[in-house]
Amino acid sequence: LERIEAPWKPPPGFRMRLRFDQLPGEDVLRVRDLVVPVGTRSLLCPRLDLVRGHRVALVGPNGAGKTTLLRALCGELRCAAGTVRWGTNVALARYDQHQRFLPEEETLFSAIARLLPDATREDVMSHLGAFGFGGTRADQRVASLSGGERARLHLLAVLLAKANVLFLDEPTNHLDKQSLETVRDALADYRGTLVLVSHDREFLAALATHTWALAGDRVETAATYAPELGRPAAAPPAGRPAPAPPASGPAGSAPAGEAPSPAPAGLSKNERFRLERRRGELEAEMARLQAEKEGVERRFQDPESVVTEDWGKLHARHESLKRKLAAAEESWMETVEKLETG
After folding, report:
1. Nearest to 92 by CA among 184, 19, 165, 15
2. What is the pTM of this model?
3. Residue 48 contacts residue 58 (beta carbons within 8 Å)
4. When you count CB atoms within 10 A of the terminal residue's CB, does the N or C end of the chain come out lower?
């Protein structure tokens, strides 16, 4: 019989702690009259105030520009107008599932051990195990991971970066139930400042104290968790024209008495519909593959499987499912990126 490793889990009672060395000033971030380019249109941010300890849910329709706004606030994107001012002693870490910053040739253990310099080997292994990289997987090289696995490892690295401000863009997409609970509990105990983007409403509701909502081409705010602010506006009844935009407004709007020039077209309706449908198909496929993979892993753990299963076939099926899941995750990330930037 071919020997395979049983799934590894962190010890009972393991709880991830997110620490930082320095407390930032009370005013973490101030934004005024920012005009952010999102594809071929502009997003207006009249006023954003991020105060120490706030936990902000950034909400809005797919493709509205949530990722682009975060990049602009981090200084990764040049804006047409406005100001972004960070406070004192801010140590920012941003998670974006498309980012890749860990050295390719490094092992998973060494990559995470560098972020936990005072930790024991067991503690490093517990963190890796909580994110699905326990046992001998810790000796793999970063280059050997699939797209979804790299995103998961990158999230772990960001959470351990000792940042007092975290920007997390879809942190739950590649997490299983156990890893999701680990991240949620760690963020619930986190004493820093947090801005979250997630499709998981329960995850946001459990953590958010404030809301930034992308409503049309403006950012609205609320001092509570208010996901309804980011829902698309209802279409006007048939035969009734949509209300005209205001004649004047924040930087970037047309002066009174002048009609704004039409913005260049981004994705067409058909292209956006096709990409959204493809995203939904891939999400369903990933859920199906993940469920089947977990079912195979449960069969491995069954003590009776030694006599009831053909382990060679079961192992081959497990490897096939891992490859298919990795390919679906890569396609999903490419599709979401096109929707966000189109």
Report:
1. 165
2. 0.67
3. no
4. N
**Is 46 in contact with 103 (CB distance < 8 Å)?**
no
- Give pLDDT tens digits for 276-307: 888 888 888 888 888 888 787 777 666 666 56
- State the Cα–Cα distance between residues 104 and 32, nearest whole angstrom: 39
Q: 293 and 318 in contact (C-beta within 8 Å)?
A: yes
Q: Which residues, 6 or more positions from 14, have their beta carbon under 8 angstroms from its beta carbon?
A: 126, 130, 182
- Report the run of H or E that residue 297 belongs to, with start and end: helix 269-301
Cβ(193)–Cβ(24) below 8 Å:
yes
Structure tokens at 234: 């209802």
Residue entry with tokens 């947090």: 194
CA dihedral for 173, 174, 179, 183, sign (positive or negative): negative
Two tokens, residue 5: 């490793």
H-helix or E-strand containing 195? strand 193-197
Phi, psi for residue 153 in degrees, rounded to 5: -65, -40
Distances (CA, A) of 185 to 15, 189, 204, 208: 8, 6, 12, 13
Can you tell me the distance from the alpha carbon of 204 to that of 66, in angstroms, rounded to the nearest whole number? 15
The one-character DSSP state at 142 is: G
Q: Is the pLDDT higher at 245 or at 67?
A: 67
Angle at which helix 177-189 crosses helix 147-159, to 10 degrees, equals 20
Query: How many whole angstroms separate alpha carbon 297 and alpha carbon 83?
Result: 51
CA end-to-end distance (rounded Å), the chain: 51
Give the list of residues 6+ apart from residue 274 with CB closer than 8 angstroms, or none: none
DSSP string, 226-259: -GGGGSPPPPPPTTSPPPPPPSS-STTSPPTT-P
State whether residue 92 is helix, strand or coil. strand
Structure tokens at 338: 């096109």
- For the chain, the average pLDDT equals 81
Residue 50 bridge partners (DSSP) = 29
